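ARCHIVE CARD
CATEGORY: sequence design from structure
SOURCE FIELD: tokenized fold
FIELD CONTENT:
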């Protein structure tokens, strides 16, 4: 986006500005140095991912860049348009996975999650990564030649168009899966008041499904290649909220419940209790439907929960789990 904005005028520096601008909302990672894990879960993608913050930082960065690169023929409004596009695109794209983004902070704590793209999807990110490398290796001394402009335009399109087309494709897949899953639920007489679908790891064809109510949730997987009407293998996980009813006065538990958007399950485990956020999927659940969840938080002060979002994401992955994932993606 930086190259498209002013690569011909400012050169590679615009890609550096673009990289800096798109990274700015993620400065919330600094909160981890003074917050406990439960508070930090809500701080991440909180205010720094809000529309208000995006607008304010856009004006700040545009003013700095406009002064830094003088003399030039780029108006302040054009700088504002560039930084606004990059920063707000970051905030917008983050809403496509299942973590949740607080667009309306500080006025509302409500979080937006489209649940359409896995947080690390190589099919989305490969094209812009290749384009970035190719734009960096184009020789700047040839900027005024026709051949350079042709190559530049090609790599700009190569980097931007496929990823936005992929978002549209992901939306189509979600519509297909939602339609099929709701038909299956009706056939299997499964009642629910809360429901969501989100892609399984690293792709967009196999989707993780959760549906239930305050009593418990059914979890399973559905491929866009599954035959219409194919029965789903669903596993029931009781919510067991009564196990933390006496703990609800504790701020830590209240933060976890709020973060999970009510999609949680409690399990008593030895001398502590395990709080699982169902939104992040099961550990190799496509292979073993009774596996635990990728996000599990120990409700005990002596157990480290720092890596709670990451520690179960690729746990138990091996050759068999990966082959089973491919098998299940294909609708088998």
């Amino acid at each position: 986006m930086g190259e498209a904005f002013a690569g011909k005028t400012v050169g590679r520096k615009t890609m550096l500005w673009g990289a800096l601008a798109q990274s700015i909302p993620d400065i919330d990672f600094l909160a981890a140095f003074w917050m406990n894990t439960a508070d930090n879960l809500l701080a991440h993608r909180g205010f720094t991912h809000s529309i208000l913050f995006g607008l304010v930082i856009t004006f700040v960065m545009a003013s700095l860049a406009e002064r830094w690169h003088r003399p030039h023929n780029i108006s302040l409004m054009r700088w504002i348009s560039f930084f606004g596009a990059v920063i707000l695109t970051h905030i917008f794209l983050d809403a496509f996975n299942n973590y949740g983004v607080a667009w309306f902070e500080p006025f509302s704590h409500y979080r937006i999650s489209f649940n359409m793209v896995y947080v690390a999807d190589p099919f989305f990110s490969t094209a812009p990564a290749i384009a970035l490398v190719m734009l960096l290796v184009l020789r700047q001394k040839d900027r005024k030649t026709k051949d350079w402009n042709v190559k530049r335009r090609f790599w700009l399109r190569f980097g931007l168009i496929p990823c936005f087309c992929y978002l549209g494709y992901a939306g189509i897949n979600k519509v297909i899966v939602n339609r099929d899953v709701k038909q299956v639920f009706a056939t299997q007489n499964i009642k629910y008041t809360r429901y969501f679908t989100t892609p399984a790891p690293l792709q967009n064809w196999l989707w993780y499904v959760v549906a239930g109510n305050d009593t418990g949730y059914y979890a399973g997987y559905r491929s866009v290649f599954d035959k219409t009407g194919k029965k789903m293998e669903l596993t029931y996980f009781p919510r067991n909220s009564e196990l933390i009813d006496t703990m609800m006065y504790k701020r830590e538990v209240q933060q976890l419940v709020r973060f999970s958007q009510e999609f949680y399950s409690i399990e008593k485990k030895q001398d502590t209790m395990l709080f699982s956020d169902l939104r992040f999927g099961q550990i190799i659940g496509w292979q073993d439907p009774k596996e635990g969840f990728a996000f599990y938080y120990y409700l005990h002060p002596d157990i480290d929960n720092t890596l709670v979002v990451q520690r179960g994401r690729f746990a138990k992955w091996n050759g068999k789990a990966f082959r089973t994932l491919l098998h299940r993606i294909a609708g088998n």
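CARD ANNOTATION: The chain has a mean pLDDT of 90. The longest helix spans residues 146-187.
SHELF: design records, drawer C
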